[in-house]
Amino acid sequence: MIRVIRVKDAAEAAEKAFEVMKEFIKPGKVLGLATGSTPLGLYAKMVEDHKQNGTSYKEIKSFNLDEYVGLPITHPESYYAFMHRNLFDQIDIPEENTHVPSGLGEDLEAQAREYDEMIAESPVDIQLLGIGSDGHIAFNEPGTPFDSGTHVTDLAESTIKDNCRFFDNDISKVPTQAVTQGIGTIMKARNILLIATGANKAKAVKEMLEGPVDESCPASILQRHDSVVVIVDEPAASLLS
Ligand code: GLP
User: Fold this and answer.
1) Protein residues whose CB sits closer than 6 Å to any atom of ligand 1
2) Ligand 1 atom 3: residue of nearest CA
3) pLDDT (tens digit, 9 = 90+) per residue, 68-102?
4) How far is CA 238 from CA 153, 222, 230, 241, in A?
5) Which whole number is the average pLDDT over 157-171?
6) 162 lies in which domain range?
7) Per annotation, catalytic residue among 50, 99, 136, 151
8) Active-site residue 141, yes or no?
């Protein structure tokens, strides 16, 4: 079941998302985390809450969705670096409790299977998601099987263009592959929180919520999950009936 919460703008989306997330920032919980610009407002709220109220992450674990293939973790646009900069380094979560898939290694598919095994041992209590303008979740591009586990994938042309802004607007610098949790992995999370803001997400939001459940829109699978909250701002909700 999907509960849709409509808000005015990205700032209000971050507030609502924090209200949902707060229930899970408790000892023993496992958070599924995401990158992209969308969760930045929520991460800022989590950092502020940690600093002002002393909310602790010492006994929390986290699993991130994805990582670019071939970027060293020291690259500022690696998702490892993104997570450290925007969240992990500003709260008290122990490094060993955080997990970001590695995009480097001899056998990425074997590493991907190990990642799924780790998640199976520590099931995710709440998975945070953004949505790509083509309806992707994590880096599961249109056409990805709904039962997929963590795997290596080619990025869609539109995703490479969307993410160009993080790589000096130089398309040749954007990685063309990523390691991503599969749709099957994501669907195992007990609860899902998806945030969509901005007009460039309006079409994907409409297809996710009102379209058929079809692999052409990866996010549409969320219609089959028991516990999903979708927070949409006005521009992202503009095509909803
Ligand atoms: C990226 C990420 C996704 C993210 C999406 C939207 O490529 N792999 O996890 O949700 O695209 O990004 P943004 O929030 O910057 O619009």
Assistant:
1) 34-38, 65-66, 130-132, 138-139, 159, 163
2) 138
3) 999 999 999 999 999 999 999 999 999 999 999 99
4) 31, 20, 15, 8
5) 95
6) 2-233
7) 136
8) yes
Pairing state between β 126-129 and 98-99: unpaired
Distance between CA 27 and CA 23 in Å, rounded?
11
Q: What is the CATH number of the domain that holds 83?
A: 3.40.50.1360
Q: Which of 40, 86, 139 to mutate to test the pocket of ligand 1 (most atoms within 8 A of CB)?
A: 139
Q: How many domains does the chain have?
A: 1
Q: State yes or no: is 215 an active-site residue.
A: no
Give the C-alpha separation, 105 to 95, whole Å: 20
**How far apart are the C-alpha atoms of 38 and 197, rounded to whole Å?**
7
192 lies in some domain: yes
pTM of the model: 0.97
